[in-house]
């Protein structure tokens, strides 16, 4: 970061210097709004969302009480109601809160699940519990294990359920794992299904999972952090069919819906449970004898005290686009993913991880430099292929032309994961990326 002095000074610097610092901050940072930024599930820059974030910072308030954030609190209630409706829940049966990101929202889902089964845990901790276990697919998000570690359940008690060839949880395997856990004397309490897995964009079969949860009386949490936005598309919402049967749902508008970071909700299909689970009644914030109905105070539903206003930018974007605007944007990402898949399919040097139309906006693929085409399939070729994506990506970053993620997964060596969630991206950017990968990779 040539010439950018990040050290802090004892004395104030000039306004001119501060402006240079601001320019340098953006100059040396990654341009996540750039149409060729494909690295993350959250990307792009919505100008209305930006305005919302700006106004939020101007208000500089805290979500814990209605008395200090009356307007934002009502907006949160309205957004949550909209999200319950879209999921298929009645307003009176549901509850929720905006939380800092999908991992924390998943933590809430599991926290409430074990409180529901064992309310005594709030006072007595894990000593009150048998050996409880939960289930998530092997393609589920790592935050589920984090939550288990944080909550004292332990990562060993997160049982990974096998997936099919497209990365979807296999219900028969789930059932088998539950019965096996019971035989071992463990106590299953929760299943985390995934709607839009991080790497493959897979959707677990929610109805089949809900049936199993009902049979075994397990809490069903759906991690729809990535896939939740698809509920806004009449063309694609059926991929989440069964989500209405979940007990709790994570949904991140900062991913597919393009709301500036952060904006994530945990939605619970039981009123009062969040508050019962987390309430501490701090007298200095939650006085029962306030001038208004204190049911409006949301602060005791959360595991936080201070809470940032994440709702205004989403509310403002919804006003500006309407539900139809989100739908059109999301449908366009799905079309781009299909376009990308079709172009790659015709290219000799590219190989798709799944040779079928993309389930979501994730498209996973390898690039094969001509040199590797002569090495027969097997260990030696895999060893070489493993190095290709990191080398291409490193060069792309050096030159600043585009950004795309890669990873190994199971027995698959490093492959690229293309993902569409950036409203600025056009077909020309997709074509550019393919050409760029060939340019940087052909001599490797
Ligand atoms: N929470 C998953 C985000 C990962 C990604 O953006 O690639």
Automatic annotation (TrEMBL):
GO cellular component: cytoplasm; presynaptic active zone
Domain of life: Eukaryota
Classification via InterPro entries: PyrdxlP-dep_de-COase, PyrdxlP-dep_Trfase, PyrdxlP-dep_Trfase_major, Pyridoxal-P_BS
A GO molecular function held by the record: pyridoxal phosphate binding
Keyword vocabulary terms for this entry: Decarboxylase, Lyase, Pyridoxal phosphate
SUPFAM superfamilies for this protein: PLP-dependent transferases
Cofactor requirement: pyridoxal 5'-phosphate
Residues the record lists as N6-(pyridoxal phosphate)lysine modifications: 255
One annotated GO biological process: gamma-aminobutyric acid biosynthetic process
Pfam family, one: Pyridoxal_deC
PANTHER family: GLUTAMATE DECARBOXYLASE 1 (PTHR45677:SF6), GLUTAMATE DECARBOXYLASE-RELATED (PTHR45677)
Membership in a protein family: Belongs to the group II decarboxylase family.
Assembly: Homodimer.
Protein's name in the database: Glutamate decarboxylase 1
Source organism of the structure: Canis lupus familiaris
Gene: LOC483960
């Amino acid at each position: 970061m040539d010439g950018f002095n990040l050290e802090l000074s004892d004395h104030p610097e000039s306004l001119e210097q501060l402006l240079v610092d601001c320019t340098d901050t953006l100059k040396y940072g990654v341009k996540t709004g750039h149409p060729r930024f494909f690295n993350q599930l959250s990307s792009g820059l919505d100008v209305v969302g930006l305005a919302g974030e700006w106004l939020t910072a101007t208000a500089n308030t805290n979500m814990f009480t209605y008395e200090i954030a009356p307007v934002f609190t009502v907006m949160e209630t309205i957004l949550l109601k909209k999200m319950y409706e879209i999921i298929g829940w009645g307003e009176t049966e549901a509850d929720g809160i905006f939380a800092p990101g999908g991992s924390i929202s998943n933590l809430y889902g599991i926290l409430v699940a074990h409180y529901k089964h064992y309310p005594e845990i709030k006072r007595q901790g894990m000593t009150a519990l048998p050996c409880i276990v939960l289930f998530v697919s092997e393609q589920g998000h790592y935050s589920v294990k984090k939550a288990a570690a944080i909550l004292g359940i332990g990562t060993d008690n997160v049982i990974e359920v096998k997936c099919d060839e497209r990365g979807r949880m296999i219900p028969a395997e789930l059932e088998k794992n539950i019965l096996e856990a019971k035989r071992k004397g463990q106590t299953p309490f929760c299943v985390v299904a995934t709607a839009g897995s991080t790497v493959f964009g897979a959707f677990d079969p929610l109805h089949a999972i809900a049936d199993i949860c009902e049979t075994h009386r397990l809490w069903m949490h759906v991690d729809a952090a990535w896939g939740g936005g698809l509920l806004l598309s009449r063309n694609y919402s059926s991929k989440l069919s069964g989500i209405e049967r979940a007990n709790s749902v994570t949904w991140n508008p900062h991913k597919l819906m393009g709301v500036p970071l952060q904006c994530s909700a945990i939605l619970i299909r039981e009123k009062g449970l969040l508050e019962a689970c987390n309430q501490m009644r701090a007298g200095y914030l939650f006085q029962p004898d306030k001038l208004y109905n204190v049911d409006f105070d949301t602060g005791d539903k959360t595991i936080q005290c201070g809470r940032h206003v994440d709702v205004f930018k989403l509310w403002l974007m919804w006003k500006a686009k309407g539900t139809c605007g989100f739908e059109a944007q999301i449908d366009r990402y799905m079309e781009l993913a299909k376009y990308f898949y079709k172009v790659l399919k015709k290219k000799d040097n590219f190989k798709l991880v799944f040779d079928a139309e993309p389930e979501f906006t994730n498209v996973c693929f390898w690039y094969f430099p001509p040199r590797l085409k002569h090495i027969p399939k097997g260990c030696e070729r895999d060893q070489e292929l493993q190095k290709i994506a990191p080398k291409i990506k490193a060069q792309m970053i050096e030159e600043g032309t585009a950004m795309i993620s890669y990873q190994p997964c199971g027995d698959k060596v490093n492959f690229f994961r293309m993902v569409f969630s950036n409203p600025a991206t056009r077909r020309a950017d997709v074509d550019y990326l393919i050409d760029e990968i060939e340019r940087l990779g052909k001599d490797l």
